[in-house]
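User: Hey, my collaborator sent me this sequence without any context and asked if I could get a structure. I don't really work with proteins. Can you help?
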Amino acid sequence: MHILWKLKKAFVKDVLAEIKEDKPHYNTLSTIIRHLEEKGYVSYNAYGKTHQYYPVVSKEAYKERFMNTAIENYFNSSYKNVVSFFAKEEKISVDELKEIIALIEKNK
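Assistant: No problem. I've predicted the 3D structure and written it out in structure-token form, which is a compact way to encode the shape of the chain:
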């Protein structure tokens, strides 16, 4: 998705050219992009048998949907579980937690 947002419109070969490490096989990437199209994240213009893909959701909308799904599926829909996970993994500092608390209190 990041590559499609960057390029705005791209054929599979264009997306593949942007991948620097761990390049998937062309057919694998094509399948991934088709799955994104089936899920409504991208659409395409057909040129014969070739498709030029473009994103139909913004980064923000995608991020919101992704995060909601991840929190629902991996953290039992609990934001407390999310924060606890990152605290246990030492991925969030006390200062960052204080900033989050301040944001919550400000929005009340």
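In plain terms: The CA atoms of residues 80 and 86 lie 10 Å apart. You can pass these tokens on to your collaborator as they are.
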